[in-house]
Automatic annotation (TrEMBL):
This is MMPL domain-containing protein. Residues 46-366, 467-695 form the Membrane transport protein MMPL domain. It is found in: Cell membrane. InterPro entries: MMPL_dom, Mycobact_MmpL. Residues 706-716 have a biased composition (Basic and acidic residues).
Length: 731
């Protein structure tokens, strides 16, 4: 099948290249309409109780909630002075039309908690108007520009202000990172291929994959929420995956040319070997990305759709468009190759990897135990991971919304950001008689719960009341989450129930959703990966080994992430202050990315080892030669991912930084410890069992009597590629 595909790429190369150009034009046209359809939301599941609480406060109570918190501070005047009040109310009257639904001041609500402890500041909770998170954010931006109070320091924070600043920083970071990553990627490819022309080809693949991924986001943006932050991650995935796949194809094509094949033969062999690997890898990773659609968060679903499109199109491009380009170039694929780079290559390519594999296989038990122990030790910090929902700490120190939030925590008796926001429904109106008595009873019961620090009735409407519950612990702590569950479980006397929201409640709901769906998502990813790996490798043992090794490397990267960002070790070197928790969305996204990347490299390596095993029939030599032949390509592919993630890890948004640093560490661990050491050690221990396949299947990598299956026709017809010297490299 793949040989025929390679021949088709050669025979119909004009049509293939024209089709690629058309896809690129259409994708760019679709991408042009994406920014106007991106969302500021997508971080909460609509059916989660915290989301329903926020909606109920807005639509049913109409007061007591807050999208943004604006603080007015005057060092000379105190809040009890008429001039202070007049200045604040005059500033609020400047709000543009249809931006504010309700603004609650200390004077309109007679609430002393809205005044700071030193009496020089007051905070005004504001409910915004607008259609969804995006519409309310637009209202906030217009309001922020209009509200001014001469002589006062005006600062903004709250959920709307924090998300808005995260989005603005993400947009700025995306432009800056794209300008950084493309030149660096091109330089890396020039160093890997020792030529400019060959270096450009994987970058072209990455650009096409990224354009397709963004076009897919545009196609679904009217159906699901696509947050701005998603675009950063989708671009990183598209570039890294496209370059990785292109690198494998170009490397194999050049190898076949140096073995004496014509360009047409080299394309056919390349598509049948490296192309098969890329296609299988693309299918595996696409299915893994589809698993993200199980999660009911717009951010995660959009990431899964964009990643799936980028991975699938990237694989398709590398087995169609790239071979057609390679045939057109032929020997000129090595053009524009500087002499000093050619002298650095040659016969030494891959020798180091082969030597390492042979050294490891002399003492496989020792190396297996040592590396496994190290990976388990790296995973230990993950056992005390604290999961939290994104708040002001996702912004860098000094960000206006973060500074305002931290000042509120210091200046006010109760910070609106850390409180639980509950809306309780009673049988009778709560402003009089029995309903009022029931409200007082319930608030007293809430105040007696462990961890509660003050209860405030923020607003009442009919038989509904909005209650703020202060807490004595950080919003991501186990005590805060226990308080959320306790308030939800507390019966409402003479009432029908309560909905509890707030940052702690959002973290509880997100992780409850994650834990509820994780078994089926993992089952989908694991079963899909096992089936596809089994089909690709014709072995029942190697896919299981691959999953175990992936689990070790993923656990190690999760532990390192906790150690850096939550515990605060080395975080400042990465430009991040310790958060005290790991963002609730990071483990979900990282789980997909790390499984996909690990499976990708596992396929790259094991299919090359299988190819050598079919030729040589010796398991130990097949592992050594397979690693030697593919080691440089895999390390270059890993370097490409490291470059992309390192560039995106410079983001000022801690959530993006966490995910990119986690992937960076996982790829580094996977390339250095797992592929180079653990794989040859374990395969040496397993020996012939690596290729165990039921006899009744009749399709094993070994033939009858354990002899190797006949090598592919192209491998038998021409000699195996030799490691060329620098002088033999085509120019």
């Amino acid at each position: 099948m793949f040989v025929r595909l390679g021949r088709f790429d050669v025979a119909r190369r004009i049509w293939v290249l024209a089709g690629a150009a058309l896809v690129l034009v259409v994708s760019c046209w679709a991408c042009a309409g994406l920014p106007g359809r991106l969302s500021y939301g997508g971080f909460m599941a609509p059916a989660a109780e915290a989301s329903r609480a926020a909606d109920a406060i807005r639509t049913e109570a109409g007061q007591g909630g807050a999208d943004v918190l604006v603080t007015f501070r005057n060092e000379e005047l105190t809040a009890d002075r008429p001039a202070f009040r007049e200045a604040v109310e005059d500033a609020l009257r400047r709000a543009p039309e249809n931006t504010v639904d309700r603004a609650t001041t200390a004077w309109s609500s007679a609430n002393p908690l809205l005044v700071s402890l030193d009496q020089h500041s007051t905070v005004v909770p504001i409910l915004l108007r607008g259609d969804g998170e995006t519409g309310r954010t637009q209202s906030y931006l217009a309001l922020r520009d209009a509200v001014r109070a001469p002589g006062f320091e005006v600062s903004w924070t709250g959920p709307g202000a924090i998300i808005s600043e995260i989005v603005q920083r993400s947009q700025h970071d995306l432009v800056r990172t794209e300008l950084m990553v493309l030149p660096l990627m091109l330089l890396l490819m020039v160093f890997v291929f020792r030529g400019v022309v060959a270096a450009l080809l994987p970058v072209v693949t990455g650009v096409l994959a990224t354009a397709a991924a963004l076009a897919a986001l545009r196609a679904v943006a009217d159906v699901i929420e696509v947050p701005y932050v998603t675009v950063n991650l989708v671009v990183a995935i598209g570039l890294a995956a496209g370059v990785d796949a292109g690198l494998l194809i170009v490397s194999r094509f050049r190898e076949e040319l140096r073995a004496g094949r014509t360009p047409a033969e080299a394309v056919a062999v390349t598509v049948d070997t490296a192309g098969r690997t890329v296609a299988l890898s693309g299918v595996v990773m696409t299915f893994i990305a589809v698993g993200l659609a199980f999660f009911p968060l717009g951010f995660v679903r959009a990431l899964g759709i964009g990643a799936a499109a980028g991975l699938l199109v990237g694989a398709l491009v590398t087995v169609t468009v790239l071979p057609a380009l390679l045939f057109c170039l032929g020997e000129r694929v090595d053009a524009l190759s500087p002499a000093w780079l050619r002298r650095r290559g040659g016969h030494r390519d891959g020798v180091l990897w082969g030597r390492v594999a042979r050294v490891v296989m002399r003492k496989p038990i020792a190396y297996t135990c040592a590396v496994s122990a190290l990976l388990i030790a790296l995973a230990v910090p993950f056992l005390h991971t604290v999961i939290g929902f994104p708040d002001q700490r996702m912004l860098p120190a000094g960000a206006p919304a973060r500074v305002a939030a931290e000042r509120m925590e210091h200046d006010f008796a109760v910070s609106g950001l850390g409180t639980l926001q509950a809306i309780a429904t009673f049988d009778h109106p709560v402003d009089r008689g029995r309903g009022h008595a029931d409200l007082l009873t319930w608030t007293r019961n809430v105040s007696e719960l462990p961890g509660a620090r003050g209860v405030l009735v923020a607003g009442t409407t009919g038989n509904k009341a909005v209650i703020y519950v202060g807490q004595s612990h950080r919003v991501e702590s186990d005590s805060a989450k226990s308080l959320v569950r306790a308030v939800r479980a507390l019966p409402v006397p003479g009432g029908s129930g309560v909905l509890v929201g707030g940052a702690s409640a959002l973290a509880v709901d997100t992780m409850d959703t994650f834990y509820r769906l994780l078994p089926r998502v993992l089952a989908f990813m694991v079963v899909t990966s096992l089936v596809l790996l089994t089909v690709a490798l014709r072995s029942l043992v190697l896919p299981v080994k691959a999953l175990v090794m992936n689990a070790l490397s993923i656990g190690a990267s999760f532990g390192a992430l906790t150690w850096i960002f939550q515990d605060g070790h080395a975080g400042r070197l990465l430009g991040a202050e310790p958060t005290g928790y790991v963002d609730a969305l990071a483990p979900i996204v990282m789980l997909f990315l790390l499984i996909a990347v690990s499976m990708d490299y596992e396929l790259f390596l094991l299919l090359r080892i299988r190819e050598q095993y079919r030729l040589l029939g010796d398991d130990r030599e097949a592992v050594a030669v397979g690693i030697q032949r593919s080691g440089r390509v895999i390390s270059a592919a890993a370097a490409a991912v490291l470059v992309v993630t390192a560039c995106f890890a410079t983001s000022s948004v801690v959530m993006v930084k966490e995910i990119c640093v986690g992937v960076f560490l996982a790829v580094l661990i996977d390339a250095v410890l797992v592929r180079a050491v653990l794989v040859p050690a374990v395969m040496r221990l397993l020996g012939a069992a690596n290729w165990w396949w039921p006899r009744f299947s009749g399709n094993s990598p070994t033939g009858k009597g354990g002899r190797p299956e006949a090598a592919p026709e192209h491998a038998a017809r021409l000699p195996a590629p030799a490691e060329p010297s620098a002088e033999r490299q085509p120019r």
